[in-house]
Design brief:
Blueprint lengths: L2 H26 L4 H24 L7
Helix pairs in contact: 1-2
Length: 63
């Protein structure tokens, strides 16, 4: 079990949820623009960090 890869997956999923929520709020004109901007920025940060963790973690088999 590789904790870095699992944590990267969780961050990626949280980032996608934040980005989708911000996009939905923008399209539906719900919430203030500052609130949607914060959700969008946090989504981008979480998504990019999660993808970076997944890409840089190597799979090494331990015997």
């Amino acid at each position: 079990m590789n904790l870095k890869r699992i944590f990267g997956t969780i961050l990626t999923i949280l980032g996608v949820v934040g980005l989708v929520y911000a996009a939905y709020g923008f399209v539906q004109n719900e919430g203030s623009w500052r609130e949607l901007l914060v959700y969008g920025l946090l989504g981008i940060i979480f998504f990019s960090t999660g993808v970076g963790l997944i890409k840089t973690t190597s799979d090494v088999a331990k015997l």
